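4.2 Preliminary Data

To establish feasibility before requesting continued support, the project team ran the inverse folding procedure on a target of 111 residues. The structure was first converted into the token representation described in Section 3, and no sequence information of any kind was made available to the design step. The complete token record follows.
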């Protein structure tokens, strides 16, 4: 199962197209940000994660709400250092102590 975005900055996402996948062995991350595919690297230590060298395709985004979602999502991933936890089949990503992203997880999708 692919972890799909359930919530961003406190706003529930119904049928979100946004997802994220991690390849821990390679330290790489990829997914779909609403309009475009994204990819890059990540490093995690303890309960902190940092995304590096993020890039994305540059397809036009005709739907304004998806464009806004994508911009907000990628801006969060490009933040310097984020905290995460995995609980009750969700991956939660925080800045300081504020929950910014919540993804629904399948049984094998934890970091």
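Position-by-position output of the design step:
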């Amino acid at each position: 199962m692919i972890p799909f975005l359930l919530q961003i900055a406190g706003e529930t996402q119904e049928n979100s197209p946004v997802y994220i996948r991690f390849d821990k062995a390679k330290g790489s991350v990829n997914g779909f940000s609403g309009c475009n595919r994204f990819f890059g690297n990540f490093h995690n230590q303890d309960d902190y994660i940092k995304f590096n060298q993020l890039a994305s395709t540059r397809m036009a985004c005709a739907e304004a709400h998806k464009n806004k979602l994508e911009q907000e999502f990628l801006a969060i991933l490009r933040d310097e250092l984020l905290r995460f936890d995995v609980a009750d089949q969700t991956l939660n990503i925080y800045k300081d102590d504020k929950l910014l992203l919540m993804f629904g997880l399948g049984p094998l999708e934890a970091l």
